[in-house]
Amino acid sequence: MSFKVFVSYSTNDLSQVEKLQQQLKGTPIDVFVAENSVSPSQDLAQAINNAIEQCDLFVLIWSKHAEASKWVSQEIGKATALRKKILPLVLDDGMSLPGFIQNLKYLPIHKDPADALLRARSIIVEAYEEKSQRESAAAQAEKDKLALMGIGALLLWAFSK
Q1: N or C terminus: fewer CB in 10 A for the chain?
Q2: Which pLDDT value is given to residue 149?
Q3: Region 121-150: what's the mean pLDDT?
Q4: Is the pLDDT at 14 greater than 70, yes or no?
Q5: What is the DSSP letter of 11?
Q6: CA distances from residue 44 to 38, 40, 74, 98, 150 in whole angstroms, order as listed
Q7: Rounded distance between C-alpha atoms, residue 1 and residue 69, angstroms
């Protein structure tokens, strides 16, 4: 099973993004960070759009730099339109989230960065585990369905004899 996280950020905040990536090392979680995930010569806009469409969780690193970025606001808009689960991490004290996600609870990185990043890791891993459980339950339900169909076919065969 794959679990994909898209990180939306301003390149001015890349050091914080890399700290989050470090928190997720050693987990089965695939983290998309445009700076590291898109190769030279690749269409950046298309790669970002694809990554947002495929992500299981959209992580927003919100700062004064992100607020000024056209890219970040477009990424938030796309994630919102696709009804992606959004985890906002606020870097700068006194900032509000943008209008269309202002009602979301966020993690204030500015208060205690180490603790907030650990909490973000915990939330992301928990979302991964929830998806894993859903997929396991769906796979078991499919197996049960196939078994019942097999029993039904066997009974039909037996009664036709």
Answers
A1: C
A2: 73
A3: 82
A4: yes
A5: G
A6: 7, 9, 13, 24, 49
A7: 33
Sign of the alpha-carbon torsion through 107, 113, 119, 120: positive
Helices (H), 70-112: 70-81
Which CATH number describes the domain made up of 3-160? Answer: 3.40.50.10140
Asked whether the predicted pLDDT for residue 47 surpasses 90, the reply is yes
Q: What is the dihedral of CA 32, 98, 114, 94, to 10 degrees?
A: 160
Q: Which two tokens stand for residue 121?
A: 């890791």
Both structure tokens of 84: 């992606």
- Taking the domains of the chain in order of start, what are their residue ranges? 3-160
Is 80 exceeded by the pLDDT of residue 94?
A: yes
Residues 142, 151: Cα–Cα separation, whole Å: 14
List 88's β-bridge partners, or say none: 60
